[in-house]
Amino acid sequence: MLLNEGLHTLDTLMWWLGAPLDFEYEDDAFGGIESNVKIKMLFPGDVSCSFRLSRTCKLQNRITIQGELSTVSLPLYGQADVTVRENKREHTERVVPANWSFVKLVSEQLKDFVQGIETQRPARTTGEDGRTVIEFIERCYRAKRQRPLPKRAPSPGLTW
User: Fold this and answer.
1) Which residues form the domain of 25?
2) Using CA atoms, how far apart are residues 149 and 50, in angstroms rounded to an integer?
3) What are the angstrom distances between the C-alpha of 32 and each of 26, 29, 95, 138?
4) Which end of the chain is more exposed for a tag (fewer CB within 10 A), N or C?
5) What is the C-alpha separation between 47 and 32, in angstroms, rounded?
């Protein structure tokens, strides 16, 4: 779950916030592949993040950033509309003309990569950026392997 689906959202979070300084990782794997993931992360600037993925629970598929005075929320897929909540009032704003298409997004990334090679300029996203995310995921899995497995699997959707 984390490597397959979480990779893209973690990449976005690290693009916005940098690499986590510290984390607590949980999943529901009982020595195999996980279906549910929870990560608590601490980023530079004392920014904390709760991250949840699931193949067995219905989630909102949103990134929500909560500050002291307001909350900003946007869907993972179709990030044209941003919801802002301030002083118990909520409003949605369109920040780009239309929802993005995943195929178009990947096409733009590949185009940027090729143009970088042709013009000898760095791509907007580097291999180092990708490696940072993969290394973080590997750190999460190592942290989990260091803990003993429970005697019984918990109820579906729970992690340890």
Assistant:
1) 2-59+100-145
2) 23
3) 13, 5, 41, 15
4) C
5) 32
Whether 52 maps to a domain, the answer reads yes
**Rounded to an integer, what distance in angstroms lies between the CA atom of residue 78 and that of residue 27?**
27
Whether 89 is covered by a domain: the verdict is no
**Per the domain annotation, does 21 fall within a domain?**
yes
State mean pLDDT over 10-19. 89
Rounded to whole angstroms, the Cα distance separating 91 from 67 reads 16
Digit-coded pLDDT (tens) for 27-39:
998 878 899 999 9
Question: Judging by beta carbons within 10 Å of its beta carbon (0-12, 13-18, 19+), is residue 41 exposed, middle or buried?
Answer: buried
In a domain, 40, yes or no: yes
**Given the structure tokens 């629970």, which residue do they identify?**
57
- Report how many domains make up the chain: 1
Task: Say yes or no to pLDDT of 87 above 80.
Answer: yes
Phi first, then psi: give them for residue 23, nearest 5 degrees.
Answer: -160, 160
DSSP string, 34-46: -SEEEEEEEETTT
Give the single-character DSSP code of 80.
T
Lowest mean per-residue pLDDT among 22-36, 48-62, 91-105, 108-122: 91-105
Indicate if the pLDDT at residue 110 is higher than 90: no
Q: Which residue has the tokens 């929320």?
A: 73
